[in-house]
Design goal:
By secondary structure, this protein is α+β, with helices and mostly antiparallel strands. Among the domains are: 187 residues, 3-Layer(bba) Sandwich (FAD/NAD(P)-binding domain), CATH 3.50.50.60; 78 residues. Helix 1 packs parallel to helix 7, helix 1 packs parallel to helix 9 and helix 9 packs antiparallel against helix 10. It holds the Pfam family Trp_halogenase. This is Tryptophan halogenase (Modular protein).
Length: 649
């Protein structure tokens, strides 16, 4: 308790007990991150308790994430492989928008996660306008990778590393279940499955404890409200209201459906958002299914008409699939007036929700928790200062998200009433209207977004503006210092595009190989080279994987003209010491699908170098060991890497 009331007086009560009320993605992400980042060596370490009602079903807040999720999972201590397998995950490299400008067949643009080439935005935009074509394709290579349904990384790379920036598509229900297991089994989070029946307060207005039906009162120093739309603490107890954003963002309903896919079907590298007369349709590809949904404004489209719109889309994109029943969701675009009040912080849907156009739901959970933990109040006396800063920051962030979402609509030339209403100046936030006027004379830049931790950078606005064919400004009267360097970088985009297309696997090949390797990692019937040069059986099973990289320095063999490539085998450390090179046997490679992936990869190498694959028979693959093994410093403790060169006729 505070001992005086003069300037600088503080409440010295330490914050040691965190109570998370509510499960789902928000609750379990909160519990995992707090427990993982807590310092266990201090005198009074943090304890985390999560209370979850056994009768409240988890609401999946989304199936798309931002690249921030990679750092979040790494901090929690979950491997990327485990995450992808447990959550039926796939890679997301951006969002594609079809039909948003005019609705014509060729009306499409991409908002990729990888930023444009480094340079002054004025030089980049002018060069694009002179070059022509789609903006994302001119300023970066990721569009071509997405078009080919390729993964942003190879399996030999360390977890969470990639050649391109990426996030994930996932099953939100499975994500919450995985986080729950990790929190309770590895991070020491206490899990209470019980009903909240009341809240006890202190004399000065804090929450002292949450009363449960069977477990009694659960006391805490800081309470996180993760109870979803119910908002039991922030609204139910404190009465904190919301700011309605429906006058800017009209959508308030959605129809969702899950569509099974064939085992060998391509997996898209991006979220596809297809505009319709009164909203848009999301389409998210996962290994086992597609998640599809029709977002719409009930003021512009009836529920029956929305169902017809979704049905037509599914028949066009999945003609052979049986149409399951649709799940209807209702929502309002709104957020709290105050997110952190006294010792209660709202996270997830309790804090608010905006339509899912840019998948902001999960990233707002991550950003809220990062802001809490990066400036964690060690004592109660500092909490009000931290909460004030938090509220200022997140009001700014919610405002920027609203503006960025609105940007997608105000640039449209579609003539349906819904789209005309979006262009009504009365519905456009004043700051966005001011920026649109400014951007007719100069491209979006850091000067327009001065905060250190902006939620959307200037590059994101560039992708949307020029993807929607917003007029590019002409070169200004002030010279830019690095114009020649920018031109050089733009000229190198095509070369990088070809190299990436040749060296990256498809999403389907990557994820299928991941699942197969996990299932058979302990019983692969491989062989290794004996001293005499003949193959002999191994007494112990070997865990291995392989990656193929084209040798661009000398793409063809000098004597026979065969296309050259490099095959990298990854071998478990217990077997690596016995031989510098491990040629796996044909039966093993056929069983793991390696030959099929190799032929697919080499076909793309040939396409990139202007050559043809004359013979795809696996018997034509010839491997020649290098003189010594090649070690990867990051993975040496776990595995050895042995390399060889080979050719395919």
């Amino acid at each position: 308790m505070a001992t005086d009331t003069g300037p600088g007086a503080t409440n010295d009560q330490p914050i040691t007990t965190i109570v998370v009320v509510g499960g789902g993605t928000a609750g379990w992400l909160a519990a995992c991150l707090i427990a993982a980042r807590a310092d266990r060596g201090v005198e009074q370490p943090l304890s985390v308790t999560l209370i979850e009602s056994p009768d409240v079903a988890t609401i999946g807040v989304g199936e798309g994430t931002w690249p921030t999720m990679r750092r979040t999972l790494e901090r929690i201590g979950i491997s990327e492989t485990d995450f992808l397998l447990a959550c039926d995950g796939a890679f997301k490299q951006g969002s594609r928008f079809d039909g948003w400008r005019t609705g014509a067949a060729n009306d499409s643009y991409l908002h990729p996660f990888t930023a444009p080439v480094d340079g002054d935005p004025r030089d980049i935009v002018v060069a694009w306008a002179e070059h022509g074509g789609r903006f994302a394709d001119t300023v970066g290579a990721q569009g071509a990778i997405c078009h080919r349904d390729l993964a942003p990384r190879q399996r030999a790379m360390p977890d969470y590393a990639g050649t391109l920036n990426y996030a994930y598509h996932l099953d939100a229900g499975k994500l919450a279940a995985m986080l729950m297991r990790h929190a309770t089994e590895r991070l020491g989070v206490r899990h209470v499955r019980d009903h909240v029946v009341g809240i006890d307060g202190t004399a000065d207005g804090d929450i002292a404890a949450v009363r449960t039906r069977a477990s009694g009162a659960i006391a805490g120093d800081l309470f996180l409200d993760c109870t979803g739309h119910a908002a039991l603490l922030i609204e139910g107890y404190y009465g904190i209201g919301t700011v309605d954003r429906g006058g800017t963002l009209f959508n308030d309903r959605a129809l969702a459906v899950q569509v099974p896919v064939a085992a060998d079907s391509p997996i898209a590298s991006q979220t596809n958002a297809t505009a319709h007369a009164a909203g848009w349709i999301w389409d998210i590809g996962l290994p086992m299914r597609r998640g599809v949904g029709c977002v719409y404004s009930s003021a512009h489209l009836s529920d029956d008409a929305a169902a017809d719109t979704l049905t037509r889309y599914l028949r066009a994109t999945a003609p052979d699939a049986a149409l399951p029943s649709f799940r209807q969701l209702t929502f309002r675009s709104r957020h709290r007036e105050t997110f952190w009040h006294r010792n209660c912080l709202a996270v997830g849907l309790s804090a608010g929700f905006l339509e899912p156009l840019e998948a902001s739901a999960i990233v707002l959970i991550e950003l809220s928790l990062d802001a809490l933990l990066d400036n964690f109040p060690s004592h109660r006396g500092a909490m009000d200062i931290h909460s004030m800063r938090f509220n200022t920051l997140f009001r700014y962030r919610w405002d920027r998200i609203v503006e960025f979402l609105k940007l997608h609509y105000v640039l449209s030339e579609r003539d349906e009433p819904y789209w005309r209403d979006h262009r009504d100046p009365a519905s456009i936030p004043p700051r966005l209207a001011e920026l649109l006027q400014l951007w007719r004379h100069q491209p979006p830049s850091r000067a327009d977004f001065p905060m250190v931790d902006e939620i959307f950078p200037a590059a994101s606005y560039q992708y949307v503006l020029y993807g929607m064919e917003f007029p590019a400004p002409t070169r200004g009267p002030i010279a830019t210092p690095d114009r020649a360097r920018t031109q050089t970088l733009l000229a190198q985009v095509d070369q990088r595009r070809r190299m990436l297309a040749a060296g990256l696997p498809t999403n389907r090949a990557y994820l299928d190989a991941l699942r197969h390797a996990t299932r058979h990692s302990h019983n692969l019937p491989c062989r290794k080279l004996g001293a005499s040069g003949f193959l002999r059986p191994l007494q112990k099973p070997v865990r291995h994987s392989a990656a193929v990289t084209p040798l661009y320095g000398h793409p063809t063999h000098p004597s026979n003209g065969f296309l050259q490539f490099q095959v990298t085998f990854r071998i478990s450390a217990r077997n690596a010491a016995a031989s510098p090179f491990h040629p796996a046997c044909s039966s093993c490679l056929r069983r793991t699908g390696f030959y099929a992936a190799l032929a697919d990869r080499l076909e793309r190498v040939c396409h990139a170098t202007g050559q043809d694959v004359q013979d795809r028979d696996p018997a034509s693959v010839r491997l020649r060991p290098r003189s010594r093994p090649c070690w990867s410093g990051l993975q040496k403790p776990r595995s050895a890497v042995a390399c060889g060169t080979g050719s395919l006729r």
